[in-house]
Amino acid sequence: MQGLVVLGAGLAGLGCARLHPGCRVFEAAAHAGGHAYSHLQGGVYFDQGAHISHTKDADFSRLIHGCAGDVVPVSPSVVRNVWQGRWISYPVQNHLHDLPLELRGQALTDLIAAHVAGAGGEPENYREWCLRQYGACLTERFYDVFTAKYWRLPAHELATDWLGGRLLPSQLPRIVRGALGLPDEEQAVFARFHYPRRGGFYGFFSPLADGLNLCLNERAAEIDTEQRRIRFHSGRVEFYEHLASSIPLPTLAAITMDLPNDLREAARRLRHTRLLCVNLVVARPWLTDCHWFYCYDAALDAARVSVPSNLAPGSVPADCTALQAEVFRLPDESLVVDEIVERTVAQLGALLQFQPGELRHVGHTLAPFAYVISDHQRAPIVTALRSWYEARGVFTMGLYGRWKYVWSDEAYRQGQETARAILTRTGRSAQAA
Q1: 99 and 107 in contact (C-beta within 8 Å)?
Q2: Could you tell me which of 11, 29, 40 has the C-alpha nearest to residue 308?
Q3: Which of 57, 61, 13, 60 is nearest to 37 (CA)?
Q4: Taking every pair of C-alpha atoms in the chain, what is the biggest distance, in angstroms?
Q5: pLDDT tens digits for 96-122?
Q6: What is the pLDDT of residues 337-391, one digit of tens each?
Q7: Cα–Cα distance for residue pair 183/155, rounded to 1 Å
């Protein structure tokens, strides 16, 4: 059988397949959804890391709201940082009043000095960007520490091409007001967002898999782009005319039999993190008003903690609070799951003042691919790989397929754009399934 084959049923794969009725979709997991999937544990839907919808795309918003049915509008968001046992409003540079007086003065002095210096040209790396934006004090005390926890690398090894829409740049009037303790509005990057009432984040997307020619538990083992053939670990063999792939680009490179050796070696240099989510249900009706908070203490394993019971009130039993802690590691770092889960439960208990006897559920999920690391070698390697594949009728898409961080709406849109490009080549028009 020829035609289009889609590898991966994450948001990009679903977006592609919905515009190409009859295509064959193969997913290695036992479910669709990819990184956007929500796992039911202890009677609560836990996402694969913190997810919300803050899209400004009206068409995408209508689509996912229609899929979810009942959607919670959240405004304003409640986001904080925890640092040395102290709660600081997010982002820290706009809330210097929450810091001890001496540190507050040093942070404000360094931050203003950085802005006055106004170094020209583009920063060469993320740490240089932080120094220019936030000054030495905040960079060293907060951003260096958090970068090591979240990205598992020193900040100077990161490029700056992932920053768009993720971090607030410094704004001196807000910083001065925050240092004086004067209120300001909409400090967080995502002051307003939406979340499904039921089903976790995947509640936005679950119906999109309906009606597709979807084969689950089918992991590709070998791809021959000359023969346009895919062999799966199950022994199944499929032929294709065009191939759309949202599986991780290094994985795609590793299983492509006719990929040149220099590209294969380059693909091995692409880096990413793993994600261990520690999921708790605590028999306490209220532990915090945060929707999520960041952990700037190096002693805490979690980099971020989200509160699903605050994201979707009513989705968790009224006498309980749901918490999810995110712990990141590189693929070659030690990750002893049971030890980290036990330690994280104890750390959250001490932080939020609950006792072990109040735990109704402790679970976890482990994602071998979490976030793409945008280091200085990522972009040229990805460009070379994608060019080689597209010349052979293989189109990559989505967060992992294009190996660049994108929001959920962009991942879905890339799938649609890929479908349209393939249909243009075949002289057909797109039809939503």
Answers
A1: yes
A2: 40
A3: 13
A4: 70
A5: 999 999 999 999 999 889 888 876 678
A6: 999 999 999 999 999 999 999 999 999 999 999 999 999 999 999 999 999 999 9
A7: 31
For residues 257, 263, 266, 267, the Cα torsion angle rounded to the nearest 10 degrees is -40
**322 near 278, Cβ under 8 Å?**
no
| Per-residue model confidence as pLDDT tens digits over 32-89 | 999 999 999 999 999 999 999 999 999 999 999 999 999 999 999 999 999 998 999 9
> CA 420, CA 426: separation in Å to the nearest integer?
10
Count the Cβ atoms, other than its own, within 10 Å of residue 148.
15
Q: Is 234 helix (H, G, I), strand (E, B) or coil?
A: coil
Read off the tokens for 410: 């962009």
Round to whole Å and give the CA distance between 229 and 76: 51
How far apart CA 105 and CA 331 sit, in angstroms, is: 40
Structure tokens at 149: 């926890």
CB 324 within 8 A of CB 305: yes
Q: Between vectors from CA 198 to CA 192 and to CA 200, what angle results, nearest 5°?
A: 70
Residue 150's φ and ψ, nearest 5 degrees, are -85, -45
Which residues are CB-neighbours of 240 under 8 A, at least 6 positions away?
Answer: 2, 3, 4, 5, 228, 229, 230, 393
217: CB partners within 8 A, 6+ apart: 27, 28, 29, 30, 234
- For 164-213, the pLDDT digits (tens) are 766 666 677 777 777 777 666 555 567 899 999 999 999 999 999 999 99
According to CATH, the superfamily of the domain at 4-33+205-269+375-426 is FAD/NAD(P)-binding domain (3.50.50.60)
Domain locations along the chain: 4-33+205-269+375-426, 97-179
Name 224's Cβ contacts closer than 8 Å, sequence gap at least 6. Answer: 230, 256, 257, 258
Which tokens go with 359?
A: 């735990």
Closest CA to 415 of 8, 21, 29, 17: 17
Residues 249, 276, 266: CA angle, nearest 5 degrees? 25
User: Which tokens sit at 87?
Assistant: 């709660």
Residue 247's alpha-carbon distances to 31, 227, 296, 324, 397, in angstroms, are 14, 20, 32, 26, 8
Structure tokens at 58: 């009206």
How far apart are the C-alpha atoms of 255 and 74, rounded to whole Å?
43
- Distances 246 to 367, 402, 418, 430 between C-alpha atoms, Å: 16, 8, 11, 19
